[in-house]
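Archive entry: two folds, one per protein. Generate the first.
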Amino acid sequence: MRDAAKAREIADGVVLVHLPLPMRPTIVNVYLVRAGDTWTLVDTGMNTEPSVAAFRGALADIGIEPRMITRLVGTHHHVDHFGTSGPFRELTHAEVYLHPLEAERATMMVHIAGENTEFLRRHGVPDVPPEQRLPPPSRFFGTWYAPAEPDHLLADEDDIPLGDGRSFEVVWTPGHTAGHCCLLLKPDGILFVGDHLLPKITPHVGLWPNGPENPLGDFLASHEKIQRLDARLVCPAHGPVYEDHRRRARQLIDFHRVRKLAMLDRIRRRPLAAYEVALDVFAIAPDNRFQVFAATLETLAHLELLRREGRALRTERDGVVLYQAR
């Protein structure tokens, strides 16, 4: 391969390809898995010219004709994972696999009008003039997001035969998104984890409008679940491949346990809205609308789990939802 930094074989017939992103994190990992004369692509990157060029270059380096890729499997619908699924299906004529909840969200992305000001106001976020609000995803991402309509809908414990004795076991891991799926390559014991088990950071887990009611509870349960798998190598979407998925899952569970305790401490003194807790716990800049939005939703996920655990109470004052420790 001409550029080992962009594509390398990490196991027999499993190639990691680094694709550039125009934002942080600056790289997303996608994976090519060989089975006989065909290949399966796990995630697609973002639909930008540098990313598509990098992928085509990697295929040329490896010696893969696009038509040899017969499956595109998305771990979830986010733009850096599924954004090029449409163009890549046209390029390869591959069949596309995605969980139905992710397919639904991919379709919804083009219909979201912008930030939900009523939802944010209800959780304590101050109003701003219209020109300072977050734009709709369709305008923000533009051509970067070109999702394909899936040919096959994934379900937990599905077995996808790849050929030559290899198959993917689908492991539904909701939390980061409602339909996020990991894929266990059998019999190799290689686990493709998308954003679920990142080696150095935790993914965003937020309580979104019209989303699951307890996303952090789902995320933590998914980490308990994934520890029951037998895997020898973990392939994340961001960061290096690593071993011992059980250890990393326990670390992430502990991380969110500590974060919940930090938030519980903030609401012991007086009732607070999610935004007020977020300002303190995440140390965000109040004038950065994206940070405010993301941190408030993630704080809300933690506060709602504390409420479900019986450690916090939820009340309402003047149309604003408040949380206080029991």
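Generate the second and append.
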Amino acid sequence: MATRYDSDSAALDAADPLAAFRDRFVFSDPGLVYLDGNSLGRLPRATVERLEAVVGEEWGGELIRAWDHWLDEPGRVGDLLATQILGARPGEVIVSDSTTVNFYKLARAALAARQGRRIVVTDRANFPTDRYVLEGLAAGASVEIAWLDPDPIDGPQPDEVASVLDAHPGDVALVTLSHVNYRSAAIADMAAITKLVHDAGALVLWDLSHSAGSIEVDLDGTGVDLAVGCTYKYLNGGPGAPAWLYVRKSLQAELRNPIQGWFGQRDQFEMGQGYEPRPDIGAWLTGTPGILGLAAAEVGIRLVAEAGMKRIRAKGIALTEYAIDLVDERLASRGVTLGSPRDQTHRGAHVAVRHTDARRLTAGLIDAGVVPDFRAPDSIRFGLSPLTTSFGDVARGIAALERLLES
């Protein structure tokens, strides 16, 4: 039986200025409700054509001669990402390697640039790979992690960062946080926290994996030093797509890539003795970049750039507001609580709901043709990727969870 939620979602979809973008992605199973684009974005139709061309014409036809233009791909795609999505300048972003490898490069470089300081600040709710890299760095050097224990929904606040900086005067080398919390979707106050870090003489490294392509970012305007992120979530670059890193131009002469590979060498093909880094963002390359992955990532980045971050952010807010309204109306009386901030200005493009039986419920949703994901200990994440998620998807996903709770 149709409900008012069905009619509401139909009206919202009819008025959606980004609705036409759904037709530019592959929907092989029209009945599937996919609410996991915050983990793996859908496949753009143009990616299939682009990869066929790279494989058949460039690799197949040009062979090694294709490196004449492939060599420029990490920086060229990085400039597109920088200027259209990250609020950065040309020459500040490079696309290559994985988020973990890039995070390691930047974190270790930051520590080397603040020798004599021994404290790294992060939070226990930060994404695991970031925490694990920091623990590895701390185990191999005279570095200590100062852990924040923020509210599980609202995430780290500026006053908490200020407190830990005050507790270690002159001894903090690096503060590193996720801009959008991977579990709750809380948005950290990038501008305020970055200023606090700079006032303390430290460097700041932001993980933007759940930000890039979902919310507006202004790396230049907020004075961010360093940032990393992936391209396979809201940027729809595909599984294992290359990540990116950002180094503010004023820091590029000071910081040094700790993984010195031949793609970061100034005269790469001279094969000379001794390493001399390139004098630009290319110094942060290491080994041979994956050209197929770069080609796929570029397609997704271009789609996001075409849609525009203002419109994407507006739809992300509308989708999450609609989802929260449905959670309050349908699920709150059934033991479900909201695991994301209610303030739309402090919430990214996914909604977490909490239930003591969340793991089983997530499995039940997937069996019913609704795909969210589970995050321990008790959260179901509904990823509402603005270019590919409809309001009808949201209504069907919440209705499916309601049916499971009733059964």
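Annotation attached to the second fold: The first helix runs from residue 4 to 14. The CA atoms of residues 113 and 255 lie 6 Å apart.
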